[in-house]
Amino acid sequence: MIEPFSLPMLHTASMNDTHFESIIKINALSVAIESAEGIEVALRALIEHTETHYAEEEQQMLEKKFPPYPAHKEEHDASLVQMRQAAADFFENNDVKALQTYLDRELIPFFLRHTETMDAVTSIFLENSEAHLPHWERLVPRNR
Ligand SMILES: [Fe+2]
Ligand SMILES: [Fe+2]
Questions:
Q1: Which residue among 34, 54, 96, 126 is the one 20 to 30 A from 45 at the CA level?
Q2: Ligand 2 centroid vs 92 CA: distance in angstroms?
Q3: What is the CATH number of the domain that holds 61?
């Protein structure tokens, strides 16, 4: 479970909204595991949400030409590979304990750390991207 108030707040409102949605999906999976009910549905919903979450951030980074895009995308990709593997393992073995361990020791710490590092830096860049343009580019009207 993640306490919603522990979410690091970023400068980009849409990113905060998405991260609150992530907490809802993660906590829904925790509840499903505890009650041993609806685990598969909660797991699929979490994966689907995470795919969209990462794709949207990557789209924003590409649009604003965020230089460390590859490093950020690499963390997303590794996290999705791990999440899909944890799900595949669960669907094969029905090992609730292993899924709980993945959630508590891998996903939740990763989510909080990634949000307060990669996402925080990205958000600062996205909100100030005009300032990163070369001086001459700022002088040229955009519609020319
Ligand atoms: Fe994010
Ligand atoms: Fe991210």
A1: 126
A2: 29
A3: 1.20.120
